[in-house]
Amino acid sequence: MIQFLLNRELRSEQALDPNTTVLQYLREHRGKTGTKEGCASGDCGACTVVVGELVGERLRYRTLNSCLTFVSALHGKQLISVEDLKEQGRLHSVQQAMVDCHGSQCGFCTPGFVMSLFALQKNAGAVNEYDPHQTHEALAGNLCRCTGYRPILEAAEQACCGKQPDQFDAREAETIAQLKAIAPREMAELSDGQKRCLSPLTVAELAEVYTANPDARLVAGGTDLALEVTQFHRELPLMIHVGQIAEMKQVQVSERHIEIGAAAPLTDCYAALAAEYPDFGELLQRFASLQIRNQGTLGGNIGNASPIGDSPPLLIALGAEVVLRKGASSRTLPLEDYFIDYKVTARQPGEFIEKVLVPRAESDRLFRAYKVSKRLDDDISAVCGAFDLKMSDGVIAEARVAFGGMAAIPKRAAACEAVLKGATWDLATVEQACEALANDFTPLTDFRASREYRLLVAQNLLRKCLLEQHSPKTETRVTAYV
């Protein structure tokens, strides 16, 4: 059985299909049809809801895409939909701001925008504080087909600058008490009699249950796995949800590594990675939308073995490792050895990614990362390149170069690295290394880019890496094309 708050109402669910998404649950099981389905793939934001959960003694509110979230993820949390904002016949201040600023046209996307604005207002630092960058980040995952962004941004400014205590603030102590009362204390199970979802609370429990059920599908954020249900209409007979395992949600900085639990949301990884590697931070801000980053995990981005995943090229270039666990045994593997072929990895049956180890930054190393995509925000890369160079008096002592979108797996450029290692860091060396890239990769042509384009972009990114070091940075290094 799972338990959660539907706004203020305690819900206990046991006999429910675990393939049910939060969007389906709201609309079909609870009659809350304010939340809309636009794309069923996490791209449009029409289905945005807000989830409240306890972090220490405080409530934290985050947006997520209800179309990609299975109901099991709500266990021990509070779900807030657009219907819950109005209180005693009065619109919430973010809803009133949308009315005052004429932020709604056809209205289909409006509930999603309202919920993103609600979370933005809740997370604003102080009364009358408005941050344009934070607002753009909060709304980047919400699409308006009527092109009404200017009034929506004006509504965001009004909502943040006119922030006043609301009913959620007034009931904060009550909500915290309710969430403490339903905090998970043992492994939960959700089942309709045929399909099941288990939610272990510890790494040891996960290891035991996954060893016993190696064919189960692991789900953390679910932003990729849920597409099998929403887009391909498949049924997942057995899932193991790892989002309740506190050990796997930690991000810790040790003397040598940034240790990132495989179930830590990307939003929680940002501060540690950006502090060590600013380019990694810039890329994470363009990793899908805020709704996806609030839910998706670094472990999942590695585990799905996509050749165009944003993080693997950067992690490979940095020499990151993954800790794999099976039963009581664990092993540490260089990430570059984890990927074997398209969607094929070194992970054994019953084995799972427990955490990711990212080396700390070193002062004598130059790290650059670039994402090239058709849109600046909320898009998958056509090419993603990362360069980690150890420099000594203008000579490249060590070189690690990795790309995504250039092969069936994220992969190092061995021939390019061989040219760079031991050479002077100058244009002549870079041009030789660019030629070597043609020996490293034979990219494919698809709807995102042609093979010729991909190879030329990869070469140009290496040239860009050199030019940036010798000229002031005038724009973001994480690049887009149109």
From TrEMBL:
List the coiled-coil residues. none
Which residue intervals define the domain 2Fe-2S ferredoxin-type in the entry?
1-85
Indicate the segments forming the FAD-binding PCMH-type domain, all copies.
Answer: 190-363
Question: Which keywords has UniProt assigned to this entry?
Answer: FAD, Flavoprotein, Iron, Metal-binding, Oxidoreductase
Pfam families this protein is in? CO_deh_flav_C, FAD_binding_5, Fer2, Fer2_2
Q: Which domain of life is it from?
A: Bacteria
Establish whether keyword Transcription regulation is in the entry. Answer: no
State the Gene Ontology terms under molecular function. Answer: 2 iron, 2 sulfur cluster binding; FAD binding; iron ion binding; xanthine dehydrogenase activity
Q: Do you know which InterPro entries this protein is assigned to? A: 2Fe-2S-bd, 2Fe-2S-bd_dom_sf, 2Fe-2S_ferredoxin-like_sf, 2Fe-2S_ferredoxin-type, 2Fe2S_fd_BS, Ald_Oxase/xanthine_DH-like, Beta-grasp_dom_sf, CO_DH_flav_C
The name under which this protein is listed is Molybdopterin dehydrogenase
